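The methods section describes the discrete structure representation at length, but only in general terms. The central task, working out the structure tokens from the amino acid sequence alone, is never made concrete. Nothing conveys this as quickly as seeing an actual entry. For illustration, here is how one protein appears when written out as sequence plus structure tokens:
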Amino acid sequence: MNITALKEFFTELNHQLAMAPNEVRRLFHGRGRKWTGLEQLTADWLQGQLVVTLYKEVDTEYLEALTQGLVALVDSPLWQEKAGQCVLLQHRYTNGAPSQVIVGELDTHPIVQENGLSYQLTVGTNQNMGLFLDMRLGREWVRDQAKQKNVLNLFAYTCGFSVAAISGGADKVVNVDMARGSLAKGRENHKLNGHNLNQVSFLGYDIFKSWRKITHSGPYDLIIIDPPSFQKGSFALTKDYQRILRRLPELLAEHGQVLACVNSPMVSCDFLIDGMKQEAPQLSFQYRLENPPEFADIDHEASLKALVFS
């Protein structure tokens, strides 16, 4: 991390904040490695709260310069224009990803909008806030595809795909995730959007131990697979993804679609394409969804990969 590059960070941050729509949005994505000396820095706008995240420890001088720049932003007319309320600095490189409020008073459970839908986040206490912003166009795609479909959402987390599917007219969505707390937040996200919960199931299961229960609600017209790259004791990307793919033929309805996702720089699109050929050869790769432009990466294969099969 280069302290002299912070000037460029604040120039871009101000530019993107001025351009940001009135919804949740990433403003700066150093992780895409397009900004030399800023590779371990990101900034997210939560409609009044700015969350700046460091992915690598920095020295005191750097931290002071970053803090001073953020305070200067808060003192600017742009901050007032955008109704800014709080700046939070998250230290993602250390255990627990501790956060510190730089300016203002933190709302730990803000409700934000994306594509006209509402989601409640958890800010300042967890490593992740409850909505992965790089999947914005994936949720938009699901909403556009979901009408009158029976949808299976594997590794559902807080059910962002489910909210998008029901808003797009899905008949039913089955969400599966072993983290019952995340599913409870997903239920609340549906309530925020006035959805009929009779159309939504929340199954707090270990997927690999629950195929019979999952199959019972099928066949599914649309299956979404969006696992973590690694989850201790439950999922390892290169070992376990194929175990899911081989179940698809018995889960998917005729003419059904699969959205298979992976967000690890360690594998390319071929990981999914070749895996599908081996485990579910009935399905063919159709196309890759674009990632949001604010998540541009110098290596397209290192960024989020969301692939459609049918």
Q: What stands out?
A: The radius of gyration is 20 Å. The mean pLDDT is 94.
